[in-house]
Protein: Iron transporter FeoB
Amino acid sequence: MGLTHRSCGKGVNKESFHRASDKADFVIALAGNPNTGKSTVFNALTGLHQHTGNWPGKTVLRAEGRYINQGQVYHLVDLPGTYSLLANSVEEQVARDYLCFHKPDATVVVVDATCLERNLNLVLQVLEITPKVVVCVNLIDEAKRKKIRLDIEKLSNHLGVPVVATAARDGEGLEQLIQTIAQVVNGTIKTTPFQVKYEEKIERAVAHLEPLIKQLVGTDFNTRWLALRLLDQDEVVIKALRKHLKQREVFTPSIGGELWA
Ligand SMILES: Nc1nc2c(ncn2[C@@H]2O[C@H](COP(=O)(O)OP(=O)(O)OP(=O)(O)O)[C@@H](O)[C@H]2O)c(=O)[nH]1
Ligand SMILES: [Mg+2]
Structure:
């Protein structure tokens, strides 16, 4: 039997609210294109009732909830639906900054089984930021109805991260999703994320920048991703990085001069 609100969500969430401590053991982000079923997954796991389109207009809100698996509390963050993480919109910026600067313990990318190719663009971008990823291929029921066949194992091998097929509306595959998330956060499953290779000129520049960035941020952030964003002259990331360094008081122009010039 698949997971439903009754078998997993509501009760689990109630239990979590009764805990004396508000602290979660793990933080899990839910990312994905709009309308892929992120909130449906979120609701099924937490027992909450988020609606489609939680982030309309100017006010950008995050839905957050909890579930418990094997005695451990998982804090689930439903991020805005986005087609990319290039920060071209408020939604993209929110999703991207959360993944980069809040650094969840794992990120579940919910993709639509009926238009996988378009959705994989975001998966590759997430894999550039964090290796701790589970791909949730949702709407598998719709794919079956449309006679779309998916080789989940092959996809997982290509991406280097676990892939779970779900029909979240019916609760199908959610138990496997929960257990896969647990295995990724506790290290039972080691991921080897597929990395997009750029043209040689860019790769050379990245190789030059990465050690400099490492001197500045250590292992706090993904240096390859930061190098790519700096080459992009991404003002948002540069600003966020400056703020982070200022907070840590490690900003030394002698090291960072080349980066900030
Ligand atoms: N057939 C089918 N429909 C689903 C499934 N999961 C979600 N849906 C439906 O897909 C629609 C979108 O689901 P949401 O959970 O709101 O999607 P979302 O990703 O949160 O959407 P945004 O918040 O707009 O990004 C809803 O009508 C759901 O009922 C599924 O596995 N199968
Ligand atoms: Mg939603």
